[in-house]
Amino acid sequence: MTEYVVRFLVGGIVVSAFSMLGDMLRPKSFAGLFGAAPSVALATLGIALYTHGASYAARQTWAMTAGAVALAVYGGVVCHLLMRARFRVASATLVAVVAWLVVAFSLLVVAGGLT
Amino acid sequence: MSPISLSPSALKEGRLYEYLIRFALGGAATVFTGFVSSRAGASIGGLFLALPAIFCASATLIEKHEIRRKRKAGLDGRRRGEEAAALESAGAVLGAFGMVAFAITFSLTVEDSVPLAFIAASLVWAVVSIAGWCVRRKMRTVRRLRDVKNLLPLGPAGSKKNASG
Which residues of chain B lie closer than 8 angstroms to A40, CB-CB? Predict the structure, then answer.
């Protein structure tokens, strides 16, 4: 239980710090870089290293590569849905999560990460 | 072409509950990732290190801020909010490439030195993301200039025509 409380606090602080930095930066497309900052990863990997060791963290970040490629696809899909399909922001960001899941798990399967 | 700038006063546009939502979402995403890792293993848990949960909240807040700002000026602001969120998502694509570089660097260096892994991966993320953004901006500028050149009647023939007309 304590581990989850620590995770919550560390994750909240790191993510908030990156988001606030993104809020302050202009232009918007540059600020967007911080929308895909590895904030959750930084918080999680620190705890993973402490509890499971370096090889576990290395395996996690190797799989994270697939998640990050899927995140690039996700950003492209959101942009397309907003500019061409005229979706509302909340709908576009939620619908695009399906694309993220499909791409992320497909890449992991192709890379043999599920075996 | 607007330069990169840092405006701390932009934080005043946000409301306390918005910051609390982000804090809670960040905490929840980190707890969720830890939970998935403990149940499904390091690989599947690792995928969720790049989950766009935070982006969903950020984009929605950006839309709200733009709408609020435009409504103060008596405009609807909805389309402007969607465009601002689209720009943010275009930036997120470049940030995601930086995240790929972060993950590869971290996984290659963490077993040698933990502090080095964090420092090197963070630096690589920043360099790749910012370089990607600069290249994209340069390409857009070149494309715009080419479009303008194609629209204007340039060259000796075009200038003679303009002078005589």
Answer: 26, 29-30, 33, 48-49, 51, 53-54
B85 touches chain A (CB under 8 A): yes
Nearest to A46 by CA among B140, B67, B49, B127: B49
CA-to-CA dists, residue B148 to A87, B34, B154, angstroms: 31, 52, 10
- Helix A54-83 vs helix A89-110: angle between axes, to the nearest 10 degrees? 140
Looking at residue B149, its pLDDT comes to 83
Q: Which two tokens stand for residue B106?
A: 């971290």
Residues of chain A in contact with residue B118, where contact means CB-CB under 8 angstroms, are: 42, 45-46
Count the residues in chain A: 115
SS3 B5: strand
Which pTM was predicted? 0.84
